[in-house]
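May I ask for a sample protein chain and its fold as tokens?
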Amino acid sequence: MFLWMIYAATVGLLLTGAVELIQPLRRNRSGRERWVWAAALLATGLVPLTTTLWPTGGASSGVAASVLGDVIVLAGEATGVSTSGPDLRAIWAPRADLLLRAGWGAATLILFGYLAGSTWQLRRALHRWPRATVEGIPVRLGPVPGPAVVGVIAPEIVVPRWLLDLPPEDRRLILSHEQEHVAARDPLLMVTAWVFAALTPWNPGSWMQLRRLRGAMEADCDRRVVRDRPWAEARRYGELLVDVGARVAPGAPLAPAAFAEGGTHLERRLRTMFELYPPLSRLRTMLAAAGALGLAAAVYFLPGPDRATLLGPERPPDFEAYTQPPVLLNPMEVGEALQAGYPALLRDAGISGTTEMWVYVGADGAPTDLRVNRSSGHQQLDEAAMRAADVMRFDPALNGDEPVGAWLSVPLAFTPPAARAPAEADEVEISPPPPPQQADIAAGPTFTPYTVAPDLVNRQAIGAALEAAYPPLLRDAGIGGTTRVWFLIDATGTVQETRVESSSGHERIDAAALEVASQMEFTPALNRDRPVAVWVAFPITFQVRGPR
């Protein structure tokens, strides 16, 4: 959650900077500057949400990827033996996230309560203030520091009594500004924007945009007031802004629901109203436009956290019993899809990653549901993995002799190509590499060609081993995880070595996964008809299942 909040705040600041840069390019008498800031505020809230929940990506290309091993899904029951000590990180990380969410919710509720309370009090006070007609305009006379528009649905103009002492032409100028606020329904827009900012009270970009939106509303109304007036009246209006600002500045604002006149943004308002900004040179115009486009592009390309960062890790799908797992029928086609989908920028930068997918294989062998189980850490890799997983075709799982639907955890790995000599890059015919020697295999995970993957033969025993190895402290707290383990399986099907390929994030779950992995028994991998030693990577998942 913290990473997502940092991402959202960064988006807000980038959008604020982009609008600041384009503001000098849009200054005119149209009176529409408010909508630029309103759009920025809306985008600040929606961009982080949509890119996290509904990511979209363009087509990309690449040249190297691999599907490592076959797939196993293992689920632990809520039983087990004691462990030697707690995993403090596993215990406190969820609690810290919960406290962060609780603080966010409390701050938002406090702000909403302030808005609702101040609006209610202001509405009650409004009914006690006497009505009057000033220069033919209905107003209320109230103990306010300066002119204001009060109310969201049915706004009314409220003026202080000192306004009655001004000359009639000054009163008309001041009230014309307030009428512009009423006609534009500025109180409704301001309250809506304030509520939108209060939804993310920790985002500095939202509050900066809210402040600039208010200033843009004042400047827009100023421009409309002086647009068709003689210069003498426009100049007098500017003098009145200074006088009113001097009277109001020491006072406190009424509430978000009251659009009160104030001394904020006064210099900017005067400059904008009389167009006192010097014209931008062609060079400055180009630099401002390029800077705004650059910041907007930074928002688009800024990598956002995955869905689990905002909503928490997805609960693994329900486990369904089967005696024989689904078998992938088209590994070559999946490998080609991975190759075609490897984002070129990440590939060229040497950035790799593995996305673990939940794939539901129906009784007919077709995948009907795809979900990201664990992100690679790169949104573009996750999107490419989703597209590659969509081309998978299986023989369905069997429960006895009956085809059944089953969930599989499928790791899809992207690895950049190793440097090749120029002569090798020009080869047209590609042949598989010769099988490595046993000593080379034992040195570390390496690829060995095989046509038939190893198959787990002691599933029932491994299910019991999972139940016994599940750390009770994590099990009782409802904490699970998936550890991806490398297996070195020799030509007889015996597990010679196990290593953690990617951690679950919990040391005790990783240790339990290695303990279970050491008890697994396999049929040997076959390269055509010959048994071969291979390294394969399988995910081992511990999860708490609800009552049956």
Remarks:
- The radius of gyration is 33 Å.
- The longest strand covers residues 353-361.
